[in-house]
Structures are given as structure tokens and as C-alpha cells.
Amino acid sequence: MSGDIKQDVKQQEREKHILDKAAELIAHHGYDKTTVGDIAAAAGMSRGILYLHFENKEKLFEALVYRETLLYTRIWLERQDADPNGGTIAAMYRNALFAINSRPLMAAFMRRDRRIFGSYLRKPNNIFQVYQSKSQWTETLGQLQAVGAVRQDIKPELLATILDMLAYGLVSVDEMRAPDEIPPFDETMEAIATLLEQALTPKDGGDASAGKVIIRNFATSILAQLEAAHLSQEQVPEEMSTSA
Predict the structure, then answer these.
(1) What is the pTM of this model?
(2) What is the CA radius of gyration of the chain?
(3) Using CA atoms, how far apart are residues 199 and 218, in angstroms rounded to an integer?
């Protein structure tokens, strides 16, 4: 292995370590109360070394959001590909929520948790806004209806809103109920998926194979958008990034 490759690997490992520690601290204390000094100390390095990898806390946090969202999407896509019923809304919902549950910060990302993200959410054109894809989600549901994978008597935009409500409600229920009143996440997830399957599958069973192709195209498109948005954030100068 050449010196340059070894250096790249070492840098990637160090950045992963920094982001791992940042994730722990932000999940516990929130964005506003977590300082660069806190992250550097947790990572076992000086702030000067940390700044060689991330120029400020905002850039570090945005790299963390990107990493977690990318990993979540990849997990979701892998489960979709392996799921023989992956062309149904129920399977898509089940696999997406499994992926959310596998990444501790994703539930907070989904509901834009103000306790966790604080003042960052007020930043114009923040990273959450860059990664939003509501219109594409609605379009995908319309495509699923067109191929017969989903019943066609509900408008795609209405269906998208209902499914978002279910997803956000599931990851936010701890704000309304005590922990001992909430059934296990996996059981709740399976129950919702079963209800969706019963409610949204066409009477003739639908075309799950055609639906699986559409859902995979949606997921790979999201991955491409994440990578493009991240690259754009890296390349645009700091003074221009908020107006892009």
C-alpha cells in the first residue's frame, strides 16, 4: 500500500472516529450544547487536529447528517433488494423503519428534533432542506399506483402525507407517552406494516415485482441526490453555501 493510500485510509478512520464521538455527544447533549472542544476531547485529540478535518462545528455536523442518512438509505435499499415482497408499500415501510431504528440519530433526523438540533434548524438552506424530496416521494407513489402495486383510489399526495404522518408519529411517540406505555418498536412496526398491506394492496394482489423496480429506482435516486448534495456542499465556498 502506497504512502498516499495509507494516509487517506488513516484520515478516513480518524474522521469516522470524530463523527462517531460527535454522534454520541449530540444525541445526548444536543447540537447547541456540544462544542468542538467537547468533540475533540471525546475523540482524544486537540481542536487543532480536529479542524484539519472539519473547518467548524456546522461542517462537522453536516458531515454527520450526510453519513447517517447515507448509511440509513443503503441499509434500506439492501433490505428492499433482499425482501421477496419488497414491491409493496407495507414492505417498503417496514424496511425503511428498520433502517431508521438501526441508526440511533435517524429518528431525531426524521422528526427534526429541536432538542437535538436546536439553532441549526433555523439556518437558511440547512442540510435537511437540501435533502428533502417530498415531490419525488409523491411521484413514486403515483408510479406504484400506475403499475398496480398500490390501490389507485387515493390521491398520491394524500397517500404520501398519511404515510409521513405514520412514520413521524412512530418515531415521535415517546414525546406523548411514557416509555413503559409504548409497545416494542419492532412489534409496532410490524403491526403498522400489516395494516398498510391490508389497506393499500389492490384486491387482485397487485404487481409486487413491478413495484419493487420502482421502489429500487426511488432509493438509488435518493442515494445519488445525497452524494451530489454532499459534493456540492464541499465544493461551494463558505460565503456562498447558504445561497446555493
Answers:
(1) 0.74
(2) 20
(3) 22
